[in-house]
Amino acid sequence: MIGELDADAIVGYFRGKSILITGSTGFLGKVLVEKILRVQPDVKKLFLLIRAANVESAKQRVDTEVTGREIFHVLKEKHGSRFEDFIQEKVCPLAGDIVYKNLGLDNAKLTELSKEIDIIVNGAATTNFYERYDVAFDANVMGAKHICEFAKRCNQLKMLLHVSTAYVAGEQEGILPEKPFLVGETLREGAHLDIESELNLIKETRREVKANYSSERAEKRTMKELGLKRAREFGWPNTYVFTKAMGEMTLAHLRGDLPVVIIRPSIITSILNEPLPGWMEGIRTIDSFIIGYAKQALSVFLVDLNLTMDVVPGDMVVNAMMVAMAAHSEEQAQRIYHVTSSLRNPAPYAVLAESGHRYFLHNPPRSRKNGEPARLSRMRFFRTLLGFRAYMAVRFRLPLEILRLLNFALCGAFSRRYNELSRKYRYIMHIGDLYAPYALFKGCFDDSNTERLRAAVVVNKQQDKSRGYDFGFDPKSIDWDDYFYTVHIPGVVKYLCDH
Q1: What is the DSSP string of 2-64?
Q2: How far is CA 443 from the centre of its chain?
């Protein structure tokens, strides 16, 4: 049973706390750091673990990649000329990395931290779907192990919150519950996963590659192919979600009686409400479609418009994280929360397609050739991989082959045109293959646990608004068409299209 929490209790929970945050240079990490500092300036300290050679480099990364971003403008206005002093007082950059034992910190720093840390938020991960297996394993599996080992050393730890993804469910269909992964569990019947064996396989493969190939490119390709092969062997569509699932298993296996909360968001999109509606960083699944369309590089997309696109704004994910921390402090249990929208307020892909078409009709992008407003035709959508590949073969592959032969016959007269079309073909096929598991996803994430957490939050809209508190994370409050048209798509154009 979760006790009632109002905004004052949530904000009050963070007063005087020392919090270690990994992944603070990522989109979600920045939103979390900014929110804590804005609503609770009396937080004791935010220790940010940053990949850097030394503390000075770590501080520089925080200045440029975290507190120097647009999202901190509201906080800058609030503190004025004292902003830098405030950040210096509250934010402590640590040069380290979760891929290393003891987080890459020396013994003195480790001992000091273990006495001070109240809360750990592990948001560091590699989110590249087709990352090298060794790189993804180090960050997403060994990282979870190292964080857990450090958490056990912290004398006054009240909470370890780990950010995972709802898509650890793979490509399962139907209602997907908020249940933990057992060690060795897989999504393929009859298969058993041994995490230690996977680590040994990675080491052995790397040894073989180094012995047989001299190029770094060959090693990279081999490790990428290995990750994909292992993921699919056990029932996951890509290396990212496979290693995130193993990270969850590792945490569950090692945690003992540590209070652990695992947050599983679906596709995280731009900020809905505060502090900066539409702000975002990093291209998400659906944004490739928006950017490709805006830049006239994408005229066709693999997606069933009737299927549900499970998205959730970044500020709602952070609100859920902060409420979960306050609700489950010092509980000797593991909690799992789907921060998702498909069950409470499903948004079909058709909503995004329609609002996108309408937005670019009213706000046409400029042509790169002459700067004139571009005339965008409607995008073609294919509901099956077979239909998509057949269209691409007839529309692109066949003309490309004819152009290649013509180019050869005419001594390279069409080289430029051939290379241009070839690049476009490869790009569209890559996007199709990459996002097929999400664009054709037929699962629906149950969020009963999250609904109970939402119900525990007592909302006093007038009072909360006057104080600048918003801890809402109910997807039912979102009008998807309005969000995409007025917030998310303008945000993608502003923050991602020119980057």
Answers
A1: PPPEEHHHHHHHTTT-EEEEE-TTSHHHHHHHHHHHHH-TT--EEEEEE--SSHHHHHHHHHH
A2: 19
Tens-place pLDDT, residues 408-428: 888 877 788 888 888 888 888
What sign results for the dihedral spanned by CA atoms 484, 486, 491, 493?
A: positive
Active-site residue, selected from the candidate residues 13, 240, 485, 495: 240
**pLDDT (0 to 100) of residue 432:** 82
Q: How far is CA 42 from CA 36, 45, 135, 328, in A?
A: 9, 9, 37, 21
Distances 395 to 291, 350, 392, 417, 466 between C-alpha atoms, Å: 22, 24, 5, 16, 57
| Cα distance between residue 340 and residue 346, in whole Å | 9
Spacing of C-alpha 42 from chain mean position: 28
Q: What is the phi/psi pair of residue 164, to 5°?
A: -115, -145
**Distance separating the N- and C-terminal Cα atoms of the chain:** 46
pLDDT of 459 over the 80 cut:
no
438 labelled catalytic: no
> Are the CB atoms for 58 and 52 separated by under 8 Å?
yes
Question: What is the per-residue pLDDT across 9-27, written as a single tens digit (0 to 9) for each?
Answer: 999 999 999 999 999 999 9
Distance CA 286, CA 302 (A): 12
- Cα gap 286→441, rounded to integer Å: 13
Identify the residue whose tokens are 């005339």.
375
Spatial CB neighbours of 421, under 8 Å, sequence gap ≥ 6:
396, 399, 400, 403
Could you count the other beta carbons within 10 Å of the beta carbon of residue 78?
16
145 is catalytic: no
- Which residue among 17, 35, 59, 244 is the active-site one? 244
**In angstroms, rounded to a whole number, what is the distance separating the alpha carbons of residues 259 and 161?**
8
Cis, bond preceding 365 (omega within 30 deg of 0):
no
Q: How confident is the model at residue 263 (pLDDT cuts 50, 70, 90)?
A: very high
Angle at 256 between CA 254 and CA 261, to 5 degrees: 85
Predicted local distance difference test score (pLDDT) of residue 1: 62
Determine which of 52-56, 191-195, 224-228, 377-381 has the lowest per-residue pLDDT on average: 377-381
- Quick one: angle between helices 239-254 and 143-153, nearest 10? 20
